[in-house]
Amino acid sequence: MNSSSLWIVLQRMRIPIVVIVVAYTIAMIGLLLIEGVDSNGNPYQMTIFDTFYFVTYTATTIGFGESPYPFTYSQKLWVSATIYLVVLGWFYSIGTLINLLKDKHLLQELQKGKFKRKVASI
User: What does 49-89 look like in DSSP terms, one character per residue?
Assistant: First the structure.
């Protein structure tokens, strides 16, 4: 199993996936803890779904705006800091994936698997 292509991918992408999960967790916990204000001026606590949704679309795009209510300055400051954290996590993961696709050992294993499938189909 140590030489299979799936094992190589899982082994190399383990740390980048953990980095993304940790970055999302940090960003979400901050948004969960910082109190916001709803449209009537009442205190509002974001839910886990709200925070996950916001962090996901902000980290993967340029964002669609503040959801579900406009953010307070504390929330804006937290989001500004965590955007860099999450985007750097994505850059690290994508860079690792690109380097993995150029890895000689992985390419050899993919060719070996292709050869095995051709032999099995004969």
Answer: HHHHHHHHHHHHSS----SSSPPPHHHHHHHHHHHHHHHHH
Q: Is residue 122 part of a domain?
A: no
- What is the per-residue pLDDT across 10-37, written as a single tens digit (0 to 9) for each? 999 999 999 999 999 999 999 999 999 9
Amino acid at residue number 16 = P
Structural domain span for residue 40: 5-74+86-116
Are 28 and 51 contacting, i.e. CB atoms less than 8 angstroms apart?
yes
Comparing CA positions, the residue from 75, 92, 89 lying closest to residue 28 is 75
Residue 121 forms part of a structural domain: no
> Is 47 strand, coil or helix?
coil
pLDDT digits (tens, 9 = 90+) for 41-93: 999 999 999 999 999 888 877 677 787 889 999 999 999 999 999 999 999 99
